[in-house]
Amino acid sequence: MEVLAEKSERKKRLVEGKKRRYLYEHIDWEQRLIIVLGYRGAGKTTLLLQYLSSAQKKGVYLSLDDFFFETHRLVETVQTLYGMGYRLFLLDEVHRYLWWSRDLKQLYDDYDDIQLVATGSSILDISKGNADLSRRAAAYHLQGLSFREYLNFKKNLDLPVLTLNEILTNHHIIAPDLLDSFRYPADFQSYLKTGYFPFFLDAKSTYYQKLQETINLVIDTDIAPYEELQHSTTRTMKKLLFVLSESVPFTPNINKLSEKLETPRNTILRLLDFLHNAQILHLLKTSTKGVSYLQKPEKIYLHNTNFIYLFSPTQANVGNIRETFFFNQLSAVHQVTAPKFGDFMIDDAFVFEVGGANKTSEQIMGIPNAYLALDIEGGNNNRVPLWLFGMMY
Fold first, then answer.
1. Fewer CB in a 10 Å sphere around the end CB: N or C, the chain?
2. 3-state class of 91 per DSSP?
3. Angle between helices 265-277 and 231-245 (to 10 degrees)
């Protein structure tokens, strides 16, 4: 136990002085069981350690992919640490631990004076597993860096969060003030290429290598074991991702994909769902409520613009980049669906057409609450700068 406590202290020292991600302020830290889900490299571990550093009770950080938990149950470990005075348990990578849901449920029920804060892959479903935790756990999803956070991290700024209503109503006033804080378009282009994950600060020269590694890790060690996929199915998933990466945004013909990959139609739809939940792909559907994975998406995107440059470093399509950025940033805080006209509908209320400076309103003419999200420095009326939608979280 002393070794685990020593590892925890060593890890805690690594986050001293680091900026906090947006989600830290949104979490209700009074909850007894908190689960933070998100993509690898988004900053979940740092968030745990920052909370550990500021907590008033005696706490310990435990990574459940540690070899220690190959032969030790979490319940027994917590029981021993409880006897040593620990009351706060920061549990990282819970999806890598076979008994995660059962042990969290038992600990929650057996100890009413401890707090459990866990992190897991974005594919983790807290209502699945050996025990349904949905009635016990407060679950939060950590997205990658917004453009606002990227600027704050890179330039040590403190730019405020903007609401969608503020942007649509006052963008002509807000944009000029914000533009004094950074270099447009240089900083925006830098974000689109290498700014979505916090590790851009430490791995500038190896950023894309790390992106490639995380995608393989997510598929091989997160999705495959969690969904109990056979090796052949995992290989098909990688082939599917490669095929889609060459042609996104992709209006899917599932039957053609099925023929090309020699895989049943329903399996293709299931794999698309896995890649969407794992935040590698982004599926645009006509509705986000009660939708089965068997419903074909209207369009398929890569999850963020950095992935576009990973797969197409010299041939990235500018229209694809703009739409992917908008979809990615808005979906973090709003419901995004496919409208009959235009590119995106937000909260069933606002329609957006995304494009460059010369884009006209022709495709959204006569549609109420319709706007153009354009790759421009400053806008007017319903012509809104695209980069401003990166200030929403």
1. N
2. strand
3. 80
